[in-house]
Amino acid sequence: MSFDYYAEKKPITLRDLKEKDKGRLWQEKRRSFTKKTQALLGALGLHSYEAVVQHIATLPPYSFALHIPITLTSPYLSRDDELFYIIENPVRKERVFGVPYVAASGWKGALRAALWQQLGKDGFEQCDSVERLFGKESKSSAGHNEGQVGSLYLYPTFFDRPPKLEIINPHERQTGIGKNPILMECVPTGAQGALTLLYVPLAVPARPTDVAADLRLLVDGLLDMLTVYGFGAKTSSGYGTATLDGKGKVAIHASLPEAAAPASVEETPTASERGAARYLDAAGNLSPVFRQSDGSLKSEAEYEAAIKREKKYSKQDKQLYDKAKKWWEREGRAAWEQRTSEAEQAPAPPEEPEPPAAPAPTHTATFATAEELRQQAKRIAAALEGHTQ
């Protein structure tokens, strides 16, 4: 029996750590990564956090969410908090499931760094959108830090492939020979995940123009971070880049105009339909000029009197009444009598319940490429700038 739970559960021993062939040992001792783990993550909703987009209507007006499926185009490196490990550079993994992932704080730091590169030092420090997204820190006269939280919330990204090893072999300048290769655990190229973020304006009420500016800057920064500047460790060496891969979504809690649907071509009615439309209404009943208060056909004298109140009674009016009378005797009377009988036998209608509250207005758009995401952000921002709350 062991009194050290950590030593009992860990499969790595001190003898293992003295092993020179760390690559072989890593292959034998690393934690298993199975489809069962992936299925469990999906059942818990941790794979993509797509529910954030679906429930955007429960948040304050002008809140928006982005869900971006990504595929790594270069290996992703990071540093885990694990101190007792086979190699010195383990990739960051989730504690419970052992799945490699990008922490929410890692995403936010990489995005902030990308915007700093994009705007420059002065532009970054003076940008109001940056302050709204990431918050601010100010010092009071008493010397205490009094900060403001930002409106941007990011979620971790879990990858669907197990870690692999990258080897860096520094060479001596004099001999040009590398004697001490460095093993680095990484998430391999081609691994897939999803970047999900949420923006909740802190100002009440929020100004649509501010939200539009924040959305534009955020999307530009995200795309540059993923494709140009990278995320994780050793980004200057080309690690940590990704591309959009799959159907992404953007949803905002606001009523925005939808794209106009193409106008439908109306069919030209036939001559018989045009004639019927003159003495029947859209529901297929007699037109008001032919119909009495109970729905039955007026007499010809009543019809003639109604016409004479507006114009002279002509031969065409008489012919139209004759057509209406023939239709009434052929099928109209039977249908009217059936409706009247059903109305008399039907029980009194129950009291109608109060109508449910109208759903909160939301606007959702999809995209499949970086350019489509940029265009959707521009459309939403333009609609917000012309939006009145």
Question: How is the topology of this model organized?
Answer:
Layout: H1 5-9, H2 14-17, H3 22-29, H4 35-43, H5 51-54, E1 64-72, E2 101-102, H6 104-126, H7 128-134, E3 136-139, E4 145-148, E5 152-154, E6 157-158, E7 164-168, E8 182-186, E9 192-199, H8 208-229, E10 242-244, E11 248-252, H9 271-279, H10 300-308, H11 315-345, E12 363-367, H12 370-385
Antiparallel strand pairs: 1-9, 1-10, 1-11, 2-6, 3-4, 5-9, 7-8, 11-12
Helix pairs in contact: 6-7, 6-8, 7-8, 8-12, 9-11
What does this structure look like?
With 389 residues, the chain is of the alpha+beta class. The chain has two domains: 232 residues, no CATH class; 67 residues, no CATH class. Strands 1, 5, 9, 10, 11 and 12 form a six-stranded antiparallel β-sheet that branches. A hairpin with a 5-residue loop joins strand 3 and strand 4. Helix 6 packs antiparallel against helix 7. The chain is elongated. About 5% of the residues have low confidence.
Number of strands: 12
What pattern of helices and strands is seen along the backbone?
HHHHHEEHHEEEEEEEHEEHHHEH
Distance between the termini: 68 Å
Pick out the low-confidence regions: 259-277
Number of helices: 12
Label the overall shape: elongated
What is the total domain count? 2
Radius of gyration: 35 Å
Biggest beta sheet summary: 6 strands, antiparallel
Structural class: alpha+beta
Helix share, percent: 25-40%
Strand content: 5-15%
- Give the rounded overall mean pLDDT: 79
